C-alpha cells in the first residue's frame, strides 16, 4: 500500500455501503447453506437431542434401498428432464433467435415480447393451464389432434407412467424457451456487420453463414445457457408439485431432486419430515450443482474461443 | 454475385418463411393463455361443449369470478404478494446499489474477493439452504410472517443485483464525482445524488429480473409462511386450484386473475427487461 493510503483515515463509508448487503447475504444465504451441509452430519436421537453421526446419513441415502431407490429414481428423472431441455428448449431457442435476427425483419419486437410471455408466468399458472388443456375431460387437446388427423394418438399423457415426465419437461420447455431465445438474440445482434459483410463477399450467406460464422461466435452464450439450464433444472420443484403433487405421481415417475428434497425434509401425508435426511439430500444436490458448474467453468468456458471485436 | 432479381425473390421467400415460423410459434406461446382467458367468462356448459369458441352474449357468465372473490381471500393474498415483492425489491435495489458502488468506486484490500463472494449466490440456489433457513426462522420466531419472506428474497436477489449494478457503477464519470468531492460533498451524498440517478436505467432492469421470481415463487411461501394470513398469491391460488379442481368456472377465473397482473406489468416493463437481457446481463 502507498504512503498516502496508509495516512488516510479509515474509510468508514466503505463499510457502511457494504454492510447491509453483506450481512443479509451472509446471514440468510451463506450461513444457512453451510448450516445445511453441517446438519447432514447429525441426526435426532430418541430423546430429541442432536447427535453427530458423521457420514451415516449419506450411507443411508446411498446404501439403504428404501432411500437409495427413491434417490436414484429422482436423479435419473432429473437428468432426463435436463436432457430434454438441452435437446428441445435450447435448439428451438437458438432457431427462433436466428430467425428473429434476420435484418430488417418487421414486427420483431412484437414476436420477441409475445414469445417471452410464458416465461414470466408462475409455475402454478403454467402447470394448471396445461393440466386443463391435456385433460381428457375437457377435450381441448383431443379436439386439436382430431383436427390434425392425429386423434388416435391422444393419450392422457400426464397420467401415464411412461409419458408423464417427458410431458412435464416439454411443458417446462414451452414456458422457458424465451430465455435462451433472448440471450442468443442478444449475442447475434452483437456480431459486427463487417464480419457478416465479409462473409457475404466470400459468398457465405443464409444457412451456411449461420453454421460457419454466427454459430461459432455465439458458442460462449450457448455455454452460459447450458449452465443456467442445468442449475435451474437441478433445483426445479414447483412445476412437479403443482401438476403432480408432492408424491410426484404417477408412481413417482415424475419425482426429481427438488420434489424428493421437499418430501424428505418437509414430510407428506404419512411420512414425517426429517430435517437431517433433508439436509443430506440438499448436500448431494449442492455437490451435483457444484460439479456441473465446475465442469462448465474449468472444462468448457476456458476452452471456448472468445472473439474481441 | 447472383442476379439481383432472383436474390430479391429469394429474400422475399425467406422473409415470408421467417414470418410464418414466428407467427406459428407466437400462437403456440400465447394460445394456451388465451384459451384460459376466454373460457373463464363462459358458462360451464359452453366451456365443455365448445372450448375453442369465444364467449358470446348467450354463453357469457362471470360466475367463476364471483366464486373466486367470495370463497378465496384473493385480495389478501394479492396484498401479501405485493408487500413482499415491493419490500424485497426496495432492499435488493438499495443495498445492492450501495454494495455495487463500494465495489466499483473504492480500491480497498479484499475488493475483488468481496465481489467474488457476493457473486457466488448467482450460481448456487438459495433453496439448498432451506433446512437451515427454516431453523433460523423458527428460532427467530419469524415463521408465518411476511418478514421471513422479505429477508429470504432480499438475500436471493442481492448477488445478481450487485453483479449487474457494479458494471454500471463503473461507467459513472469520475470527473463528476471528483468535482462533487472538491465541492465538499460527502461520499454518501455522492452516492445518492450522483451515482444513483445515473444508474437508474440499470436499476429498472435489475428490478424486473428480481421481481418475477419473487412474485412467482412457491417454495418459500409453502415452507416459511403457509398460514392463511400470510399466503402469497402464488401459494393461495395453488391451494385454491387444488380445492376447487372440479369447479371449472372457478379454476379458470382464478387462473385468469393470476395471469392478468403479471402480464400487464410485463407489458409495461418489457422494454426495460429486453433491453436488460440484450445489453447488461450478457457480455
Number of helices of chain B: 13
Low-confidence stretches of chain B: 1-6
Q: What is the CATH topology classification name of the largest domain in chain A?
A: MetI-like fold
CATH topology of the largest domain in chain B: MetI-like fold
Total number of beta strands of chain A:
4
Termini gap of chain A: 36 Å
The structure class of chain B reads mainly alpha
Greatest interface (CB-CB under 8 A), with counts per chain? A-B, 86 and 92 residues
Poorly predicted regions of chain A are none
Count up the domains of chain B. 2
- For the record, give the distance between the C-alpha atoms at the N and C termini of chain B, rounded to a whole number: 35 Å
The helicity of chain B comes to: over 70%
State the total count of DSSP E strands of chain B: 0
- Overall average pLDDT of chain A: 87
What's a quick, concise take on this entry?
Chain A is mostly helical.
Describe this structure as you would to a colleague.
The complex is a heterodimer of chains A (309) and B (283). With 309 residues, chain A is mainly alpha-helical. Chain A has two domains: 13-52, no CATH class; 62-301, Orthogonal Bundle (MetI-like fold). Chain A is 70% helix and 3% strand. A two-stranded antiparallel sheet of chain A has the order 1-2. In chain A, strands 3-4 form a two-stranded antiparallel sheet. In chain A, helix 3 (56-63) crosses helix 4 and helix 4 (65-100) packs parallel to helix 8. In chain A, 36% of the residues are buried. The model of chain A has no long low-confidence stretch (mean pLDDT 87). Chain B is mostly helical and 283 residues long. Chain B folds into two domains: 4-63, no CATH class; 72-243, Orthogonal Bundle (MetI-like fold), CATH 1.10.3720. Residues 1-6 of chain B have low confidence and may be disordered.
Structural topology:
The complex is a heterodimer of chains A (309) and B (283).
Chain A: H1 3-7, H2 12-39, E1 42-44, E2 50-52, H3 56-63, H4 65-100, H5 108-120, H6 123-134, H7 140-147, H8 164-176, H9 178-189, H10 193-201, H11 206-234, H12 238-244, H13 257-266, E3 267-268, E4 271-272, H14 275-301
Antiparallel strand pairs in A: 1-2, 3-4
Helix pairs in contact in A: 2-14, 3-4, 4-8, 4-9, 4-11, 6-12, 9-11, 11-14, 13-14
Chain B: H1 4-39, H2 44-49, H3 63-71, H4 74-105, H5 111-123, H6 130-139, H7 146-169, H8 174-182, H9 187-198, H10 200-216, H11 219-224, H12 233-243, H13 248-281
Helix pairs in contact in B: 1-13, 3-13, 4-7, 4-10, 4-12, 5-7, 7-10, 8-9, 10-13, 12-13
Amino acid at each position: 500500500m502507498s504512503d498516502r493510503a496508509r495516512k488516510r483515515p479509515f474509510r468508514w463509508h466503505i463499510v457502511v455501503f457494504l454492510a447491509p448487503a453483506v450481512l443479509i447475504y451472509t446471514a440468510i444465504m451463506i450461513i444457512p447453506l453451510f448450516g445445511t451441509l453441517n446438519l447432514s452430519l447429525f441426526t435426532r436421537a430418541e430423546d430429541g437431542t442432536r447427535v453427530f453421526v458423521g457420514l451415516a446419513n449419506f450411507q443411508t441415502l446411498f446404501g439403504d434401498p428404501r432411500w437409495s431407490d427413491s434417490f436414484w429414481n429422482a436423479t435419473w428423472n432429473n437428468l432426463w428432464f435436463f436432457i430434454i431441455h438441452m435437446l428441445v428448449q435450447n435448439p428451438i431457442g437458438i432457431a427462433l433467435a436466428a430467425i428473429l435476427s434476420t435484418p430488417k425483419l418487421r414486427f420483431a419486437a412484437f414476436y420477441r415480447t409475445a414469445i417471452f410471455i410464458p416465461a414470466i408466468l408462475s409455475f402454478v399458472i403454467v402447470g394448471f393451464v396445461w393440466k386443463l388443456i391435456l385433460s381428457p375431460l375437457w377435450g381441448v387437446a383431443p379436439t386439436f389432434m382430431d383436427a390434425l388427423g392425429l386423434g388416435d394418438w391422444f393419450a392422457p399423457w400426464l397420467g401415464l407412467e411412461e409419458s408423464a415426465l417427458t410431458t412435464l419437461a416439454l411443458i417446462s420447455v414451452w414456458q422457458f424457451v424465451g430465455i435462451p431465445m433472448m440471450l442468443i438474440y442478444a449475442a447475434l445482434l452483437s456480431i459486427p456487420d463487417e464480419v457478416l459483410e465479409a462473409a457475404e463477399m466470400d459468398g457465405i450467406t443464409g444457412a451456411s453463414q449461420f453454421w460457419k460464422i454466427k454459430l461459432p461466435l455465439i458458442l460462449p452464450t450457448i455455454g452460459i445457457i447450458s449452465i443456467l439450464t442445468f442449475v435451474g433444472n437441478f433445483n426445479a420443484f414447483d412445476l412437479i408439485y403443482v401438476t403432480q403433487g408432492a408424491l410426484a405421481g404417477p408412481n413417482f415417475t415424475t419425482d426429481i431432486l427438488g420434489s424428493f428434497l421437499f418430501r424428505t425434509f418437509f414430510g407428506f401425508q404419512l411420512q414425517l419430515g426429517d430435517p437431517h435426511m433433508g439436509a443430506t439430500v440438499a448436500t448431494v444436490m449442492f455437490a451435483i450443482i457444484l460439479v456441473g458448474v465446475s465442469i462448465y467453468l474449468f472444462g468448457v468456458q476456458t476452452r471456448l474461443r472468445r472473439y474481441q471485436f | 454475385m447472383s442476379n439481383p432479381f432472383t436474390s430479391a425473390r429469394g429474400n422475399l421467400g425467406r422473409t415470408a418463411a421467417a414470418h410464418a415460423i414466428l407467427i406459428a410459434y407466437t400462437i403456440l406461446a400465447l394460445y394456451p393463455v388465451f384459451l384460459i382467458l376466454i373460457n373463464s367468462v363462459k358458462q360451464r356448459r359452453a366451456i365443455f361443449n365448445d372450448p375453442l369458441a369465444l364467449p358470446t352474449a348467450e354463453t357469457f357468465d362471470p360466475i367463476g369470478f364471483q366464486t373466486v372473490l367470495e370463497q378465496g381471500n384473493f385480495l389478501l393474498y394479492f396484498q401479501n404478494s405485493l408487500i413482499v415483492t415491493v419490500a424485497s425489491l426496495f432492499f435488493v435495489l438499495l443495498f445492492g446499489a450501495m454494495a455495487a458502488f463500494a465495489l466499483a468506486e473504492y480500491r480497498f484490500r479484499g475488493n475483488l474477493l468481496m465481489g467474488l463472494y457476493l457473486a457466488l449466490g448467482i450460481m448456487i440456489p438459495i433453496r439448498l439452504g432451506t433446512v437451515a433457513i427454516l431453523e433460523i426462522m423458527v428460532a427467530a420466531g419469524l415463521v408465518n410472517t411476511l418478514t421471513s419472506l422479505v429477508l429470504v428474497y432480499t438475500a436471493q436477489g442481492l448477488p445478481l443485483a450487485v453483479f449487474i449494478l457494479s458494471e454500471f457503477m463503473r461507467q459513472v464519470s469520475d470527473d463528476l464525482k471528483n468535482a462533487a468531492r472538491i465541492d465538499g460533498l460527502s461520499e454518501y451524498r455522492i452516492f445518492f445524488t450522483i451515482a444513483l440517478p445515473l444508474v437508474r436505467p440499470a436499476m429498472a432492469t435489475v428490478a424486473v429480473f428480481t421481481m418475477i421470481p419473487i412474485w412467482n415463487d412457491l417454495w418459500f411461501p409453502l415452507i416459511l409462511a403457509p398460514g392463511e394470513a400470510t399466503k402469497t398469491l402464488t401459494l393461495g391460488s395453488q391451494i385454491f386450484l387444488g380445492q376447487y379442481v372440479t369447479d371449472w368456472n372457478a379454476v379458470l377465473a382464478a387462473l385468469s386473475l393470476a395471469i392478468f397482473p403479471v402480464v400487464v406489468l410485463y407489458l409495461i416493463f418489457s422494454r426495460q427487461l429486453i433491453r436488460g437481457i440484450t445489453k447488461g446481463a450478457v457480455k
